[in-house]
């Protein structure tokens, strides 16, 4: 069968050829590199016949459970596992939420490159894990908050200054809750946010009402209007971007709508730099 007609089999054969039998506890003389089919089946806890049929393009579509076992047996990376599912079932695997440990210096430099545009990185549970100076000046100085308090939902429903800066807080808060619900479900993090949701329901009657409404929204892009304590009324477009190879993270960039708003933010940032230099 031509390889183009059996992409799943070709991929499986290629990946087992890359594994070191000795390192995995297998011995014996081999005519070809890598593991034998029966060895992959043994590591994957499936029938050798069934695995052979998969490589040969026979036997129909495998189950998600079988593909997960094979992914483990072949020691596939997350992106390889996703590719395996696309070849075998025509869809990605179910999401398994794995929280990360912050951002790389390179990603932080991307944030810092936005001079007058507040930008931040949030997790699927809406914890703010990185931000630039513009975000600290215009939105919230996350660095002054304990790490456990750097959650967008928690800030919105417990910080009176943030609430006062939002002209239509009720509508925005309802939207944020709906978008948060969708993000957590999409990332497979529903159980991870259970404690946060329970805590906010207890602390905020408004959050409890919004959460029980069961609305879901996309946080993709839109307009954010603020009544900043120093800048006054300010308007910014925002866009949300996925972080490649980090499904647990997304980046939000707020761009001043007008040149005048951008100039005011630039002046405010410069003032903060001067004040910080004088304090040091």
Looking at the chains present, what oligomeric state does this protein adopt? single chain
Query: For the largest beta sheet, what order do the strands appear in spatially?
Result: 2-1-5-4-3
Tell me the span between the first and last alpha carbons.
Answer: 72 Å
Based on DSSP secondary structure assignment, what is the total number of beta strands?
Answer: 5
The amount of helix comes to 40-55%
Q: What would you report as the Rg, rounded to the nearest angstrom?
A: 25 Å
The 3D shape can be described as elongated
Helix-strand pattern: HHHHHHEEHHHHHHEEEH
**What number is the mean pLDDT?**
90
Share of β-strand residues: 5-15%
Brief account:
This protein is α+β, with helices and mostly antiparallel strands and 280 residues long.
Would you give an account of this structure?
- Helix content is 48%, strand content 13%.
- It has helices spanning 7-17, 37-44, 48-56, 64-73, 78-89, 105-112, 133-138, 152-158, 160-165, 169-186, 194-203, 205-212, 259-279, and strands spanning 119-123, 128-131, 221-228, 232-242, 249-256.
- Strands 2-1-5-4-3 form a five-stranded antiparallel sheet.
- Helix 2 packs across helix 4 and helix 11 (194-203) packs across helix 12.
- The protein is elongated.
- It starts with 6 loop residues before the first helix and ends with a helix.
């Amino acid at each position: 069968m031509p390889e183009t007609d059996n992409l799943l089999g070709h991929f499986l054969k290629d990946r087992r050829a890359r594994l070191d039998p000795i390192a995995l506890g297998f011995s014996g003389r081999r005519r070809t590199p890598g593991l034998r089919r029966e060895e992959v089946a043994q590591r994957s806890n499936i029938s050798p016949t069934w695995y052979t049929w998969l490589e040969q393009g026979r036997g129909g579509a495998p189950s998600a459970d079988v593909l997960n076992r094979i992914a483990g047996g072949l020691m596939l990376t997350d992106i390889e596992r996703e590719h395996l599912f696309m070849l075998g079932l025509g869809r990605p695997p179910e999401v398994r939420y794995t929280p990360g440990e912050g951002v790389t210096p390179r990603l932080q430099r991307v944030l810092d490159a936005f001079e007058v545009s507040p930008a931040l990185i949030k997790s699927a549970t809406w914890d703010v894990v990185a931000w630039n100076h513009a975000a600290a000046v215009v939105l919230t100085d996350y660095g002054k908050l304990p790490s456990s308090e750097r959650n967008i939902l928690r800030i919105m429903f417990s910080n009176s200054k943030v609430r006062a800066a939002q002209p239509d807080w009720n509508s925005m808060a309802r939207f944020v809750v709906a978008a948060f619900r969708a993000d957590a479900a999409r990332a497979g993090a529903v159980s991870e946010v259970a404690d946060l949701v329970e805590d906010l329901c207890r602390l905020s009657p408004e959050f409890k009402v919004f959460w029980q409404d069961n609305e879901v929204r996309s946080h993709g892009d839109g307009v954010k209007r603020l009544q900043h304590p120093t800048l006054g009324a300010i308007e910014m477009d925002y866009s949300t971007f996925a972080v490649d190879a980090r499904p647990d993270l997304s980046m939000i960039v707020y761009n001043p709508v007008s040149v005048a708003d951008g100039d005011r933010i630039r002046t405010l940032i410069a003032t903060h730099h001067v004040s910080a230099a004088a304090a040091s």
